[in-house]
Each structure stands twice: as C-alpha cells, then as structure tokens.
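Hello everyone,

My group is preparing for a crystallization screen and wants a predicted model to guide construct design. The compound we'll soak is adenosine-5'-triphosphate. Before spending weeks at the bench, it would help to have a computed complex in hand. I've included the protein sequence and the ligand's SMILES below. Output in structure-token form would be ideal because that's what our pipeline reads.
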Amino acid sequence: MSSVLTVKGLSKSFRGIAALSDVDIDVTEGTVLGIIGPNGAGKTTFFNVVAGAFKPDTGSVTLDGKDITGFPAHKVARAGMTRTFQLMRPFATLSVLENVAIAASVGGGSQRAARRRAEEVVASVGMDEWADTVAGTLHTAALKRLELARAIATRPRVLLLDEVLAGLVPTERQPVLDLLASLRDEQGLSLVFVEHIMAAVMRLSDSVVVFDRGRVIARGAPAEVVDDPAVVEAYLGTAPSTGETTDE
Ligand SMILES: Nc1ncnc2c1ncn2[C@@H]1O[C@H](COP(=O)(O)OP(=O)(O)OP(=O)(O)O)[C@@H](O)[C@H]1O
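Reply:
Good plan to model first. Here are the tokens for the complex, ready for your pipeline.
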C-alpha cells in the first residue's frame, strides 16, 4: 500500500526550545496511525505544523505526492487533510445539519450539493435524530460527533484527530472508536490521532509513533511499542496501560 502522508525531518522551535526535532512520519493509505507521548512531547505541535497553523523551521510535508510544506490551514484542507480540534467551536445557533452543510460547502459547489453531502455525512456519523438540533444545546458526545462530521464533510483523504475521546465517559468511547474504524474500513480514510487514552490507541491503531521531548523515540505495531524500554522510560516507569483506563 502506498503512503498518503509523508513527513520528513520536521523541526520546530519556540524561542530556541525545540518542540519538534527531525521528525519522520509515514502514513499508509487507509490505515490509522496513533500518536502518543508524555505531556509536552510535541504531539500538538506536530499537528499544528502538519495542518498549517505554524510553518516548520525545517523539513517537508507531502500529502498524496504533493509538497504542502508551510501551506496555511485552508490550503492544507483543500489539498485533502482536515483536522479536528479538542476545543470544538460549531456555530452554536445553527442546527447540526446546517453546521455540516457549511463545512461541506467550503470546497465550492452548489448549496444543494452541500446540503445533500451534509445529509449523507450526518447519517454516516449516526446523528440523524439530531440533524435539526441547534448545536449550542448538544452534550459533549454529540458535539464530538458533530466535529467529526464537519471534518468528514470536507472530503479529506487524511483526518487528523486531536483527542477525540477527551471528555467522554468510557461507555461513550467505543461507539466513537467504531465510527473511526468504519471511516477507515468503509471509506478508506487515513487517520492520524493523538490520544491519551491508551486502550483506545491500542484498539484502533494499525501503527503507533511515540514522541518524547520533540523526537520520535519508538514506532511500530501497538503491542510492540508499549513494551519498548524507551517508551516505558519516557513514561517514567509507568508503562502506558493497555487496560481500560480513564487517564486523560
Ligand atoms: N505556541 C507555542 N509557543 C511556545 N511554545 C510552545 C507553543 N506550542 C508548544 N510549545 C512548547 O512546545 C513543547 C511541546 O508542546 P506540545 O503542546 O506540542 O506537546 P504535547 O505532546 O501536545 O503535550 P500535551 O500532551 O500536554 O498536550 C512544550 O514545551 C510547549 O511548551
């Protein structure tokens, strides 16, 4: 299978402090890559640089064979990579369907087409019964789904997910994981997700990359990575749990 996203030698410093150092990442089309690492490891900075919030100091980002290094976020999205945010900001006074239709219309096309696309996407994330609900009244789990729906509506090839499970109680997590797996398995989407809930990373990821102090310290299949001594060390002896934890 071919790579859909290739990151090479990516570095980014803030006032002389390296948040990312020489990071290489390769995402195979139609797979899920999980990114883990202790607090301050550089996970969010990685998303910020790859998705166009910040320009890298060095390195390159290639999406689907196209060099998108340093592109601003809207151009990254147009090139086929969309990001979700941990802090969700839908248009509070608009309905779920209207919010998704706005996202669907970003790439151009008629309003009718955007609305049709929104209906499809709202159904695909299991939000049919909330389609006409005003976004400002949704609870966290539904807001997370809306955030996903808005991202999917832009028809990305690659979806960057920033802690999609944060704020959900354990019983709310599995349906979201099932939804993400179906995006990969049924729609062929490639997913990169940053997540603190290790059980979810283990379950969903095809491969895992571990960051520590701005560097990639381990990569491989989920089961290999948690046993890697460098990973255990990075977590200060508290090996990332594979059980059903609530650490967030
Ligand atoms: N906009 C910024 N300005 C200055 N320093 C920053 C900025 N963004 C990140 N940093 C620094 O870069 C380093 C990496 O932070 P980052 O937020 O990427 O880590 P993280 O792995 O996402 O952590 P967490 O799991 O706590 O969210 C930290 O030292 C942080 O203080």
